[in-house]
Automatic annotation (TrEMBL):
It comes from the Eukaryota. The gene is cpr-c1. It comes from Lachnellula suecica. Keywords: NADP, Oxidoreductase. Belongs to the aldo/keto reductase family. This is NADPH-dependent conjugated polyketone reductase C1. The lineage of its organism: Eukaryota, Fungi, Dikarya, Ascomycota, Pezizomycotina. InterPro entries: AKR, AKR3C2/3, Aldo/ket_reductase_CS, NAD(P)_OxRdtase_dom_sf, NADP_OxRdtase_dom. PROSITE patterns: ALDOKETO_REDUCTASE_2. Signal peptide: none annotated.
């Protein structure tokens, strides 16, 4: 739950149909033309212009982009640098295995790279970008300030830039609201983020792991509306109206841990549904899990050190679930509650 407000119940929201775009949503979904004859085809209005020569380019160029409320565009499929390669001691020598893994992701066609201060591997992320040999503008780079400790925002940001070896990041997020003792702390931190945004060194600013009360506190004083909220999101944790709140206020949603229902939370009520749909579309259950997120207009982050698996995930640009299938997964998913992260901050039966 949110700081000092974790027991507040979220209001009842009307469930949004898959792929519906509310009139007051301040960002646009751009989706590729489906290559699957069984799925409704729809043409990309503006394909994401991030790519590389070779087979990966044709795959990655089909990944849709999401135009945010600040006018910037984010690729809707990204590579997460945290879970598999978290480094407990950020001052330890450069981990070449982590560098190698991130380069593998880049070479597999992922140029949207999601990092964070608390992952401890910003130097490795920066080194991987250098070793890729690609120009900076090919990448969409995210990093985050810690959300569990009080620190000077500007100093933390400048240190992240130094570790990454970059002059700017495409997206800078507050990793979590748990550092705050009250709404005023969230508002002050957001004012710091707005100053960084104004400097031009962070093209987009947003938050992560914020719930409705946290966002409401920020919005009361914000001059710049958060562009995105990165949250754990999968069928077993749909957050009871949070995505609808995002849509109402023009805040995009980004999903980490989208494969939870086919990995950590297995077995579960969706196992049969995933298998059925995977057989229908000729893909894996994991690719169905990713497509379910994308078909709701939500950015999805995934990771792996397996090259074939990473390239397989790019198949999500080649098919589309029907709205009925998206709804089926959503409905069945609500039969189980599973949270893979921040478990110490929430009760076991908390669905927020």
């Amino acid at each position: 739950m949110s700081i000092a407000l974790r027991t507040v119940q979220l209001a009842n929201f009307t469930r949004i149909k898959a792929l519906s775009i509310p009139e007051n949503r301040f960002y646009q979904v751009f989706a590729p033309l489906s290559n699957n004859p069984t799925a409704p085809a729809f043409q990309a209005s503006l394909p994401c212009k991030i790519g590389k020569t070779g087979s990966s380019q044709s795959k990655m160029s089909q990944i849709p982009g999401l135009k945010l409320n600040d006018g910037n565009e984010i690729p809707m499929l990204g590579y997460g640098c945290g879970t598999a390669r978290y480094k407990a001691n950020p001052n330890a020598p450069l981990d070449q295995e982590t560098v190698k893994t991130i380069v593998l992701g880049i070479n597999s066609g992922y140029y949207h790279l999601d990092g964070a201060e608390v992952y401890g591997n910003e130097p490795e992320l920066g080194q991987a970008i250098k070793e890729s040999g690609l120009p900076r503008e090919k990448f969409y780079i995210t990093t985050k300030i810690s959300g569990i400790k009080v620190q000077d925002t500007k100093q933390a940001f400048e240190l992240s830039l130094k570790k990454l070896g970059l002059d700017y990041v495409d997206q800078y997020l507050i990793h979590a609201p748990f550092f705050a003792k009250g709404p005023e702390d969230l508002q002050a931190k957001w004012a710091d983020m707005e100053a960084i945004h104004a400097s031009g060194k962070a093209k987009t600013i947003g938050v992560s792991n914020f719930l409705k009360p946290d966002l409401e506190a920020v919005l009361k004083t914000a001059k710049v509306v958060p562009a995105i909220n990165q949250i754990e999101y999968h069928p077993y944790l749909q957050h009871d109206g949070l995505v609808e709140f995002h849509n109402k206020h023009g805040i995009a949603t980004s999903a980490y841990a989208p494969l939870t229902a086919v990995v950590k939370a297995k077995p579960g009520p969706l196992d049969g549904t995933y298998e059925k749909l995977a057989k229908k579309y000729g893909v894996t259950p994991g690719e169905i899990a990713l497509r379910w997120v994308l078909d709701q207009g939500i950015v999805v982050l995934t990771t792996s050190s397996n090259e074939q698996r990473l390239k397989g995930f790019l198949k999500v640009s080649q098919f589309k679930l029907t709205s009925e299938e998206v709804e089926e997964i959503s409905k069945i998913g609500k039969q189980k509650n599973f949270r893979g992260f921040w478990q110490d901050k929430f009760a076991a039966d908390d669905w927020s």
